[in-house]
Amino acid sequence: MLIRGTGILLVFLALGHFALTHIITDVADxxxxxxxxxxxxxxxxVWDGALLFAALAHSAAGLAALVRxxxxxxxxxxxVFILGVLMVFLCxxxxxxxxxQLR
Length: 103
What we know:
About 5% of the residues are buried. The chain is mainly alpha-helical. The protein is about 85% helix and about 0% strand.
C-alpha cells in the first residue's frame, strides 16, 4: 500500500515540480537565484520536502519488497534492517534541510 500511495502522490508532486521548472519558468532562468526565491516561500519548501520524502519512501518500500522476494532466510532480515537504517539517515538529512529552510 505504501508503494501505491506514494506512487500516486509522486505523480502529482513530480508533475507539479516539472511544470514549474520546465514549462512555467524558462529553463534558462532556472538557476540558484530561482531556487533561492522559491525556497523563500514556505509552500515550496513543504512541496519539495514532500516530494523528496515520497520519493525516499517509495524507493525504500520498493527495495524492501525486492529483498523480501529474492533474498531467503537471515540475509533477508539483514538487508531489510540495513535498508531501514539507511532510510532513517536519509530522512533525517531531509528533515535537516527542510527545517533549516523553515527557520
